[in-house]
Target: Glucooligosaccharide oxidase
Amino acid sequence: MRVTTPLFVGLIATAAEALVVTRATIDKCLVDSGVPIDTKGDEGWVRDVAPFNIRLPYLPTAISVPLTTAHIQKSVLCGKKLGIKVSAKSGGHSYASFGFGGENGHLVIELDRMYNVTLDAKTKIATVQPGARLGHVATVLYEQYNRAIAHGTCPGVGISGHFLHGGFGFSSHMHGLALDFVESVTVVLADGSVVEASSSKNSDLLWAIKGAGSNFGIVASWKLSTFEAPDALTRFGVTLGWNKSTAVAGLEAVEAYAKFKAPREINFRVGDYGKGSPAIEGLYYGTQAQWRKDIAPLLDTLPAGWNISETRTLNWIESVISYSNYDNVDWITPSPQENFYAKSLALKGLNGTSAQNFVNYYFDVANNVVDRFWFFQLDVHGGKTSQITKVSNSETAYAHRDKLYLVQFYDRYENNETYPASSFGFLDGWVDTVTEPLPKSDWGAYANYADARLPRATAEQLYYGVNLPKLQKLKAKYDPKQLFYYPQGLSPAT
Ligand SMILES: Cc1cc2nc3c(=O)[nH]c(=O)nc-3n(C[C@H](O)[C@H](O)[C@H](O)COP(=O)(O)OP(=O)(O)OC[C@H]3O[C@@H](n4cnc5c(N)ncnc54)[C@H](O)[C@@H]3O)c2cc1C
Ligand SMILES: *[C@@H]1O[C@H](CO)[C@@H](O)[C@H](O)[C@H]1NC(C)=O
Ligand SMILES: *[C@@H]1O[C@H](CO)[C@@H](O)[C@H](O)[C@H]1NC(C)=O
Ligand SMILES: *[C@@H]1O[C@H](CO)[C@@H](O)[C@H](O)[C@H]1NC(C)=O
Ligand SMILES: *[C@@H]1O[C@H](CO)[C@@H](O)[C@H](O)[C@H]1NC(C)=O
Ligand SMILES: *[C@@H]1O[C@H](CO)[C@@H](O)[C@H](O)[C@H]1NC(C)=O
Model:
């Protein structure tokens, strides 16, 4: 039996057969609308269907590959007409494969052929297409215009996922989150209309886009402010030499410094990459001599055993390259795939029992996990002088401006075998022991380090905190039928 409309899919014998019929229907709608597509099995399809996180592969029903805003709009209209969920994929680096919708069967709009970057000479505002990757944006802005934006370190990450949910990096203490650079956006809404969102037009949409953007429409173009690329920055490293009896005091010294003494110019984290030796790494807006003066109040209070391991003067693009772990960041293709599980915490502090629990777990459990690669990163995100905390939690949808730290926990297997279910407990246990003593208002999670295992309501609460009720109302306004659904997507207010 041949069935021509997806309404009859439920009557077909096998799921595989249903998918074939539905794919043909969607592909036809796209092709009839003049939208470029990947055909299942062709080179483009094979590349576009590969998830960054090998642990979470999903099979789209169809993949459109727009080159224009009109192509994006027509893709959304096909999804709407045929009753199929639509997901935008920019760089495809979602930890939970949300660019595929986090489940099988979506119409995926693959945006990464749209990566142009230009700058208005007078306003210094950049116009960026929605599938540009961070390293390409940084390279073009620097090489052609000597301008820059604060954002994360991985050159293959897509601008859209990153800027829609935060965007933290080694210039964020100084200049803010990536989303703080957003002036306005062009968005394709669930009803197929194309609108601008700025502080004067659809300002509620702009508010929502800056922190929870994947829920409201598809950004087809970004307008971003920029700053002049600095000539000389100091990259620095300090080994900490902590052991189980000094590490809590060490964390408390870091916390006191980060909260009250760190100048805005200092950007840093404490991290350990499975080596059993936590260290500081950072980027300072100033000379090495100024850095030594500004870091002294921290070094003076750290437990004995620390050493300065690195001080290097770098220009802007050298600093971006140096923290990318690659030789060149001008990327228009995805990063190598990884097979991993990750979690995050946004914390007001890490002291007392919570810090003791973190340290005990690090020394007693994590340091004994030797059969794969894991790391933690404790990013200094807030504090008195941080540019991120200059605005309140409710000024944009990003709800963690009152948090001192963003913490990432990451656990990776070096091969393609299934991530064993028995291994989830490693990071789950670490996060549980840290948060167990804390009141709910002291912690959350970061949507850009999506943890696919959180139930929907928990994820909404942890990602969006105080902004959740307003976001759910806006979801009901802009996407009531959840065309842009994914398992941790916002539920519309009823
Ligand atoms: C190697 C690596 C390093 C990282 N480093 C950092 C870091 O230093 N700092 C940091 O803050 N984060 C970092 N991240 C996390 C990163 O910010 C997120 O994974 C981000 O969401 C990825 O964006 P993307 O466009 O590549 O992902 P995608 O998977 O394409 O998209 C992510 C989400 O955004 C939605 N989306 C994509 N494009 C659009 C659009 N145009 N309109 C509406 N919705 C859209 C997708 O549907 C999906 O829900 C890193 C991730 C990786 C893999
Ligand atoms: C990007 O810009 C180049 C040069 O102007 C143009 O030829 C190309 O079509 C643009 N690409 C897209 C996807 O808009
Ligand atoms: C720091 O340097 C001192 C002296 O140079 C050395 O004894 C100590 O082991 C070093 N500590 C670390 C953590 O590298
Ligand atoms: C921990 O480090 C401190 C400072 O270097 C040192 O005095 C102490 O002996 C160390 N303790 C253990 C158990 O190694
Ligand atoms: C400890 O952390 C809490 C948040 O969990 C914070 O409110 C408090 O100020 C911190 N205490 C110190 C001494 O930094
Ligand atoms: C994992 O799979 C990918 C694609 O399927 C392949 O390119 C890669 O070589 C594999 N890696 C390992 C370590 O097996």
In short: The first strand starts at residue 37 and ends at 38. Residues 121 and 161 are 27 Å apart (CA to CA). The chain has two domains: 9-230+456-493, 232-314+337-453. The first helix runs from residue 15 to 32.
